[in-house]
Every structure is written in C-alpha cells, then in structure tokens.
Amino acid sequence: MKAYVFPGQGAQFSGMGKDLYDNNLQAKELFEKANGILGFRITDTMFSGTAEELKQTKVTQPAIFLHSVILARTLADFKPDMVAGHSLGEFSALVASGALKFEDGLKLVYHRAMAMQKACDLKPSTMAAVLGLEDKIIEEVCSSTEGVVVAANYNCKGQVVISGEVEAVNKACATLKEAGARRALVLAVGGAFHSPLMDPARVELAKAIEETEFSRPVCPVYQNVDAKPHTDPAEIKKNLLIQLTAPVRWRQSVENMVADGADEFIELGPGAVLQGLVKKIAPEVKTEGRQ
Question: How confident is the model at residue 123, as a pLDDT?
Fold first, then answer.
C-alpha cells in the first residue's frame, strides 16, 4: 500500500518548484493562481530567492505547501492509500487527499504562518533537538524544568524535539545531557512551535479553520495530534484546531501506517527529511521522493 507524506517547515531551498512550473502547464496555472490569492509573487522567491528570503515566515510555509500540493496534483499516478504530513505538511496532506480545497488550504497556511510569526514576536522562544534518550526521560525533564518547555516533535526513536521559552529550553538541554543525551542542540528556528506558547496563534487560526469547509478525503489522513487515521471531516477539523499547540507524533504516525499495511512511502515536496525518518522508523519499507 502506498503512503504519501508531506514535509514541514525547514525543507525549503532556492529553486524549489521551478521545474514543475517550467514543464507542466497545470502546475504553472496553479502557481499563478497562488500568486493571485497571496497578493505577491511567491514564485519569484521560491525560484530565485536567497536562503534568507525563503526563511521569511510568510514565504516558507506557503512555499512548501505549494510545492507539495502542486506535485500531487500533477502526478498522473497519484493514488494514495493513506497520507500524512509533518506539522505544516498536514495541510498539504489534507489538500492532496481532497479534505480541503486548494484555495482554502493556501489561505489557511498563509493565515497560520502570519499568526505563528505574531506569537513568536510576543516572547523569546526556541526549540532543541534531543538525540539518544527515551521519550519518557525527555518528558520527565521537561515537566520538572522551571518555565515553559515541552516535547514537541516525536520524529523517530531517539530523536525528539523540545520547544518552549529560551531559558527553559537551555536548562532542559543541560539536564538532558547530564541524563545521557547524545546531543541536545538548540535549533535555528523562529519560535516555540507545537508548545503552549503558540496558543495566541491557535486562537487566531481557530476562527479561520472553523469557517472553512472540510470534505471527506479519498483516503485516511493520519493526523499529528493522535497519529491515527481520520476520514470524518468533523474529526479532521477538531484535530487541526489543536495541532499548533500539540506535539507532532510522527514516529507513531508512521508506525501506525505500517501496521495498517503501508509498505511504500513517497515524500512529495522539497527535501528528503521524511524519507530519512521513515527509514529509521521502519527500515523494511520502500521510500522515495518526488520534487
């Protein structure tokens, strides 16, 4: 069974999507439609922008979303048995599977990016990758550290990202190293994604999600918040409402997809991060990527 997976923030690169735009009329039309919806030529930055320009929140999230979704739209053999996306990638998965319209998905992603930027500006916050420790130890250290710090991304066995206030994350990193972490490395990110500090963004995005129409997808969508398959539009919407402040359960999602019959994972969009994670989680499955 084929599982299509969609990357999140951080996978962007200059030139992303250009081949698609140049060589596929349907893709070109969708990119131009996106430029019109956003009110600026995001394609110019995607195709020839610097790494710094691509890192702007208003560009990064819609750029990755567009690359992934337009790829899915233009693949002649796109027939997913199941889909999932990492954080931002969940929106790509929802559009690719038909749960959200292209225009609605893009508007929500742009809204999400701007709301997250505002939340990041309210308080200095960050994230850190912790390698080589059990989930339980990381969770215990986070809960016993003063300030806001939580486990935010369960990427694969022995790789968890923590998220929170700068001071609390630094303290937790020091404790985790003492507890035996191979590494506890602060990441170059704009803020504490998937932590309680994103609550202002969650509240702002909730209104937009509530007003958006969701449909039954063509296949199950394994959502970040519970790593389970969903096809009911009301359930999908409910899970999406809490996604910004809840952890991304990527390892558990992949494990559940494999248990449900997935033996081939295809990553659609920039980069190859998810292929690497899938190989670590389920070395027996086939992985490939399309850009």
Answer: 87
